[in-house]
Each structure stands twice: as structure tokens, then as C-alpha cells.
Amino acid sequence: MMTDARKKPEDLRSARWFGPADLRSFGHRSRTMQMGYAPEEWQGRPVIAIVNTWSDLNPCHTHLRQRAEDVKRGVLMGGGFPVELPALSLSESLVKPTTMLYRNMLAMETEELLRSHPIDGAILMGGCDKTTPGLLLGATSMDIPAIFIPAGPMLRGNWGGKVLGSGSDSWKYWDELRAGKITQQDWLGVEAGIARSHGTCMTMGTASTMTAIAESVGMVLPGGSSILAADAGHIRLCSESGRRIVEMVWEDLTPKRIQIHKAFLNAINVAMAMGCSTNAIIHLIAMARRAGHDIGLDDFERASRVVPVIGNVRPSGSTYLMEDFFYAGGILGLMERMRAHLHLDCLTVSGRTLGENIAGAKVYNDDVIRPLDNPIYGEGSLAVLKGNLAPDGCVIKPAAMDQKFLKHSGPALVFDDYPSMKKAVDDETLDITPDHVLVLRNAGPQGGPGMPEWGMLPMPKRLLKEGHRDMLRLSDARMSGTSYGACVLHVAPESYIGGPLALLQTGDIVEVDVDARSINMRVSEEELARRRAAWTPPPPRFERGYGYAFTRHVQQANEGCDFDFLRTDFGAPVLEPVI
Ligand code: FES
Ligand code: MG
After folding, report:
1. Do residues 395 and 384 touch, judged by C-beta distance below 8 A?
2. Which atom of ligand 1 is nearest to the CA of 58?
3. Of 214, 262, 317, 391, most Cβ neighbours within 10 A?
4. CA of 290: how far to CAs of 157, 557, 572, in Å?
């Protein structure tokens, strides 16, 4: 497949460290021998970094410590020299205030780890939500050959014989507990059974969305993103990726050769068909822009009109989980089904095209992976809305909400911070109706800070007791990919920097029309101008440290929340280090 001239050992990047007959290289060689490696083990061989986001506090990546050894086995078989480089592990469940604050830090770390060391190719190991985009953003900017290995979804949850889904069932049973429908004892059973193996969330949350995107954009070996973490096939994926990355170095098959503009259009379409997490939008825009392509909300809007949801996985679907999806044929089966919506000539890390990768893939369960003419949702899973509340756009997930809110108007009930909103919704005397629009602001990229996953605002206890399970909610936050409900998210520009959401007041009428893709507040221009003149910015979130740099450089949600200075078109390219 690859026709370009192959690299020679003396062309390897690492040869700059190890090759020359000078004093510096003497140091590099003697210090490598200090670790017990004989020159035969590295000389003339591609040095492969295994960038591993394993940590003792990342339950989704528990197995990656051992899996790195399986990758090493493959690299050695392929004739390379494997070295493991640990990187920031972003556990979605344990890192506060939100992993989104640190996605760009992992991206920077990945890029600089690869740049500063004698590395010729990289295996990227991650999967828990932000680790996937973080690793890929960094590897793309560095642009040496790289393969992403997803951690793989965990097994289905189980409680008293009932199947439990990550995230979704925590919200569901929490609401049941608050409504008095289950006991505290039941709740403890849910707690023990909802995450019972290593691996990432097994609903179509951000983890499974992003690993599917990583594969459809060409950066994962075929089928790799659907393999369960606990399946022996996952071990084989690791050793196979190790063998393949060595070959990719000789081919000089770099991320930017793979991640072309059309490859991102493929990823958007696959995300839509999977019933993806709303977070996909932010990460995909950032990834595409790092690869040098102008992808934006409009591309998602176009796709959402034409690509139906055929992956029947919760929370867009009502029953199945990633384990079912894997057994039903996984992502290769899904992509085969939707081949009419894909650019099949895009090259992938396998060295073959996407079309070649999916040729012959089968679907074994037509209810889990639906045919295009029998989708679970006729349009794509996400919709982009614009209007005087969100001039730069916002996002809703029509596939996972009560359809009666697709067109809705109602009075706003506005909160400026999460704690006061939380207190209010727990108050059973709260003056609220099912027609109200619950609003949280100051939860965006700078205001949150880091745009936390607060966007599935909790249902007011009073409405829950009255039997309501959904209402229109609005914020500049994100929400977990495992969440559901009529939640308008990612409002841009965010309120913290004075976006129009900052001007909304309790009692104003908010109008949402998903079919028309519009969102507006029924407030006159004159009144908005008056409020704008009276508006004062909230106090700064950070006055030192990483957060200080974050709030100064993070871009808005519609731009992917990348740092401005990490953009590919920001300044001259970074040169290779002086050795
Ligand atoms: Fe790690 Fe959901 S918490 S993938
Ligand atoms: Mg998540």
C-alpha cells in the first residue's frame, strides 16, 4: 500500500541521539547501557514510546499497566525498542474540578514527551474520556507515527440480576431514590454493581464515543475500539499494535497523513450514527484544527441532518450497552452498514484504507446495529442551535430526550452558580412548573472553570415527586456522554465572559425550536443593551498556577477549547531540539 521510500536506520529520529561519534552521544549510549540494554537492542531500531495513562487512581485504566507489557512484546517482535513513558492520567470519576481542565495539559505533555526524547513512533494508551483527545492532540502536533490503543469498555453492570449502564443508571436510580421509589439498601447494591471490571464506561458515553472517533479518523487498528477491556482480544490488540507501529515508522506514516479533512468528516458521521456524546463536538473540532483543518459546528449541523442513529446503545438507545455492541459486530459492522456516508479511500494506521478495513465486516444483531432504513433516530444524535442566547452556537442531543421539548417555550429560572442551584432543586417548595427552563451559568470554559459536566442539571425534587423525569435545561457547561434529557449545552460565548446568557433573567421567556435549530430569549434589543451596560464580570477564577494560564488561553466551546497557542497556525512550527 505504502509506495513512498522506506526510512533507513540512519534516518531515524533517534539516530540523532544514539548515532554520532561525539561526546553527547557517548552519554546517551552509556546511560542507556546503564539501564541494562545492550547496543544491539536499540541500534538501528525504531524507538517506540508507549505513552501510558495508567495510574493507581484511574479505575478505567487499571489493566493498562500490564497491557504496556503486551505492547512491548509486539514492538520487540517487530524489531523495535519499546520504552514506556507515563503520562497524566485523567480519571473522569476522580479528578476535580473536571478533567476538561487538564485535557490540554495532557496534550502538551504528550507532544513534549515525544519531542524531547529519542522517539521514532508512539503507542498511545488511554480511553477514559479526555485521555483520548489529549493523547491524540499531542501526537498530532508532534506528527511522528502513532497508534492509539483504546482501554476498551468495561463489562455490563449488574445489580440483583438487572443490567446497569455507566452513568445513565446512576442518574436514573438517584432520581428514583429521591422520589422514594427505591431503598437505601437498593442504592448500595447499585453502587457495588455498576462498575465491576476494568475498562471505560460501557454506555455510549464520551469514552466510547471518542475511541470510535479515534478509530474512524484512522488512528486505531481495525475493530480495536469495540474490544472489551476484559476480553483476551484486547491483549492481542496491544501486541498487534506494537508490531505494526514499528512498520509504520519505516513507512513514515504520520498522523497528519492519516488525519486528512475527509477523515474528520468520516469521524463526524460515525459519531452521529453511534448516538455520540455531546463532548464529541468539542474534541473533534480541537483535533481537526490541530491537524490543520477548518472543521466547525456547521460540519456537525450538516451531518446531523443526513446521518441517522443506528447504534442502539444507551443513552440514545434504550437497552443495549457496549458489550452488546461488540458482540453485534462492533464498529466495523456499524461502519460497513453506513459505508454510503463514509469516504472509504482514507488511509488508516493499518496501512490500508478505511474501505479495506471494513470490507466483509458483518452485523450479527440487527437490533443493536440497525440497518440505515430502520434507525433508532432518523436524524443524527446531536443538533446545533443558534440565536440571541447563543450567537456562536450551542448543542442539544435530541436522540436522548423527551421529544415534547423539541419545540418549547417557558420562563427561565436562572442560577449563577452550581451550589445555589443544587440547594434550590432539593427544596420541595421551589416555585417551579414542568414548563420552566432551568438555567445555570458561569459553567463554561473560563467560568466553570474548565467547563465541568454539570449540564444535566438535576431535576427539581418537586417535579420528580409529581412524576416528571425531563424538563428543558440550559447552561454553558458540558454534560457527561452517559447523560440524557432536554439539556441545552455549550452555550457560546459563555456567560462568564459576557455572552448573552449572562443577560438572561428569571422570568424571561426562553424559546427553543430544535427543528429550526434556534434558541432565543424573548427580550428586546433595547432591554438587552440596558442589561449589558449594567453587567460586571465575575471575579477571576485563578490568580496563579496552571489555572491562570488556562483561563487566559482557552478558547470557546465552538472552537474546541484548545489553547490558542497550541493551534497549528499559531506562530512558526516548533523545531526539533538541539542535541
Ligand atoms: Fe472513565 Fe467513564 S469514568 S470512561
Ligand atoms: Mg463521561
Report:
1. yes
2. 1
3. 214
4. 36, 15, 14
Residue 166 alpha carbon, nearest atom of ligand 1: 2
Relative to the alpha carbon of 165, which ligand is closest? 1
Helix, strand, or coil here: 154? coil
Indicate yes or no: pTM above 0.90. Answer: yes
Grid coordinates of 354: 478505511
- Record the cell numbers describing residue 298, joined without a space: 456547521
Burial (CB < 10 A; 0-12, 13-18, 19+), residue 402, is: middle
Q: Which atom of ligand 1 is nearest the CA belonging to 93?
A: 3
* Contact 207 CB / ligand 1 (< 6 Å): yes
Ligand 1 pocket, residue 277 CB under 6 Å:
no
The per-residue DSSP string of 529-569 comes to HHHHHH--PPPPS-SSHHHHHHHHHBPPGGGTT-BGGGSTT
Q: Which single residue is written with the C-alpha cell 497557542?
A: 565
Q: Is the ipTM of this complex over 0.85?
A: yes
Amino acid at 417: D
Q: How far apart are the first and last CA of the chain?
A: 35
The CB of 129 under 6 Å from ligand 1? The reply is: yes
Smallest-distance ligand from the CA of 200 = 1
Residue whose grid cell is 497556525: 569
Return per-residue pLDDT of the chain as tens, 579 residues: 455 689 999 999 999 999 999 999 999 999 999 999 999 999 999 999 999 999 999 999 999 999 999 999 999 999 999 999 999 999 999 999 999 999 999 999 999 999 999 999 999 999 999 999 999 999 999 999 999 999 999 999 999 999 999 988 998 899 899 889 999 999 999 999 999 999 999 999 999 999 999 999 999 999 999 999 999 999 999 999 999 999 999 999 999 999 999 999 999 999 999 999 999 999 999 999 999 999 999 999 999 999 999 999 998 888 999 999 999 999 999 999 999 999 999 999 999 999 999 999 999 999 999 999 999 998 878 899 999 999 999 999 998 899 999 999 999 999 999 999 999 999 999 999 999 999 999 999 999 999 999 999 999 999 999 999 999 999 999 998 878 899 999 999 999 999 999 999 999 999 999 999 999 999 999 999 999 999 999 999 999 999 999 999 999 999 999 999 999 889 999 999 999
Kindly report the protein residue whose alpha carbon is nearest to atom 2 of ligand 1: 201
